[in-house]
Amino acid sequence: MALVPDPHNIRLGIAGKVDENDHPYSWSAILNGYDPAAMRQFAAPVISEYLTAQPVGNFGIPGVRVTHIWCDDAREAKRIMSASRIDAMVDGPEQLIGNVDAVLIPTDRGEEHVRRARPFVEAGLPVFVDKPLCDNLEDLRVFEQWVSDGGAILSCSALRFALEFEAMRERLGEVGQMRLISVAMAKSWRRYGIHALEAVYPFLEPGGWISATNSGRSGAEIVAYEHRSGVQLVVMVGEDCFGGFGCLNVYGTKSRLSAKFGDSFSAFKRQLAAFVEYLRTGRPPFPFNQRRELIHMLIAGDKSRAEGGRRFTLPL
C-alpha cells in the first residue's frame, strides 16, 4: 500500500544542511534539474562536474519533485532553491508538514538524526535519512521503536547502489570461494565509515557479522570484521585518504576482483529511486534489521578504537 496520497504526484521536502555535505544540492538537482551557473557558484565543484556530465534525459523521476526546503541557515536554503529549482522555502522544519508528502534529511551527522527526524515521524510522514542513520545505541533504539510502531523510515549509503560494485557482485563466481574483502574510504569514521561498510554489505549474507576489531587510530581507522561464512573484511578510513575513496577488492581461492566507486550521479539517483519506490508500494528495499546490523558494525568500530583495539562481538 502506498505511503503517500498520490503515488503519481509526490512532493518531497528537504530538511536541513550541515557543513561539508552538499547533498541538498545534488539530491534536489537529480530530481528537479538545476541551474548550471548557480550550481557552480554555490555547491562543491565535484557536484557540477558530475551533473554536467549527464544528458538532460537522465534527470528526474516521473511524478516526483522537491517542492519545499528548510535549512538551518536560511541563506543556504535560498542558494539551494536557486541552484536546484525548488519552489518554496519554509521558516522551520515543522512547516514542511502539510506541504509535502515525504521528507529527505540530507545531513550526515548521525548524532543529530533523532532530533531532525522526530517532528516528521510523529506527524506520520515518511522520512529518508542520510547515512549514517545514527552513531549510538540509544538513538538506534529510538529508530527501532519508531519503525516497530509503523514509522516509514529509510536510511542507507548511496554506495549500496553503486553500479561499479553491482558489476563486481555479478562476477563473484570468478574468485572461487571468497576469503577476504578490503575497502578504503576518506574522511571520518563516524560520517564515512558507513559508506565503506554498506559498499561491502550486499556481498555477503545479512545477519552474519560476528566481530569487529579496530587496530587503527583516530583519523586512520583500520577495522577488521569477521563474517560467520569465514570471510574477513578489512576497512580503512583515513581523513585524507582520497586516493582510496571507494576502492573495493575481493580476494578468493581462484582470483580477485577490484573496483573503484566513481559514478556518484547513478548511485544517488538509484538511492532516491529506491525511496520513491518505497513511497509508492510501501515495500522497503531492504528490511530494517539490515540497517540495525550496519549501525552495530559502525558503532563497534568506534568503540574498539576507543578501547585500545578491543575485539567486540556483534551484535553489541
Unreliable runs:
none
Return the domain count.
Answer: 2
Mean pLDDT: 98
Name of the CATH superfamily of the largest domain: NAD(P)-binding Rossmann-like Domain
The CATH topology of the largest domain turns out to be: Rossmann fold
Structural features, described:
The protein is an alpha/beta fold. The chain folds into 2 domains: 10-155, 3-Layer(aba) Sandwich (Rossmann fold), CATH 3.40.50; 162-262 and 296-313, Dihydrodipicolinate Reductase, domain 2 (2-Layer Sandwich), CATH 3.30.360. The protein contains 10 helices and 13 strands. The chain has helices spanning 23-32, 36-42, 45-52, 74-84, 113-122, 137-148, 163-169, 189-200, 264-281, 288-306; strands spanning 10-15, 64-70, 88-89, 102-105, 127-129, 153-155, 178-186, 209-214, 220-227, 232-238, 247-252, 256-260, 312-313. The strands form 2 sheets. Strands 12-11-7-10-9-8-13 form a 7-stranded mixed β-sheet, covered by helices on one side. It has a 6-stranded parallel β-sheet with strand order 3-2-1-4-5-6, sandwiched between helices. Helix 1 crosses helix 9 (264-281) and helix 2 (36-42) runs antiparallel to helix 4 (74-84). The longest helix has 19 residues, at 288-306. The radius of gyration is 19 Å and the shape is globular.
